[in-house]
Amino acid sequence: MPKVLYLADTMSNGGAERQLALLVKYLPPQWDRRVWSLGSGPFVDVIRASGIPVEVNERRWRYDLVPILNLWHTLIRNRPAIVHSWGWVSSAAAAPLCRLLRIPWIDGSIRIGWVPREHTLRARFALALADRVIANSRAGLEAWGISGARGRVVHNGLDPERRLPASGPRPAGGSFTAV
Question: How many CB atoms are located within 10 Å of the residue 165 CB?
């Protein structure tokens, strides 16, 4: 059973966090998946309700290195088959150790179709070290200059359970009927 470790900067109420929750929830069951985050938020409970372990290592101050050391310990202890990060801080923290341990690493931090002014150098450093880069649009990959060989697009998903009627029995197996 291949292990995937998902890294997040936060589990706050945002689109990237929702997409991460959907991905780990609907990934085929033969994948052993875990989530490691630098910050808590409502999606911690959502992911845990799906039966997926979530480890939160909040920073006590801006330059607190203890969570990064905990991440490195997690990587060494668990030796995942793949690391998939969802933020530039967790990406920059995991990149050097993933390279050293030869763990394939996917950066999923591109969430918009342009390059923002803040944190650009740090994000470019992390993106340069990634084996693959996943964005939610082709425009994002193009803006950051990610080639077609390294870049992939995974569009934002829709949780099929949100389309179910509010009352009445729910279909078995996660399938749904169109309304």
Answer: 10
Around Cβ 56, how many Cβ atoms within 10 Å? 16
Buried b (16+ CB within 10 A) or exposed e, 58-88: eeeeeeeeebbeebbebbeeeebebbbbbbb
Structure tokens at 80: 């995942």
Residues 6+ apart with CB under 8 A from 57: 36, 37, 38, 66, 67, 70, 71
CB 2 within 8 A of CB 29: no
Rounded to a whole number, what is the distance in angstroms from the first to the last CA of the chain? 36
Residue recorded with tokens 């203890």: 66
pLDDT tens for the chain, residues 1 to 179: 899 999 999 999 988 899 899 999 999 989 999 999 999 999 999 999 999 999 999 999 888 999 999 999 999 999 999 999 998 889 989 999 999 999 999 999 898 888 988 878 888 888 888 999 999 899 999 999 998 899 999 887 777 777 777 665 555 555 444 43
- The model carries a pTM of 0.84
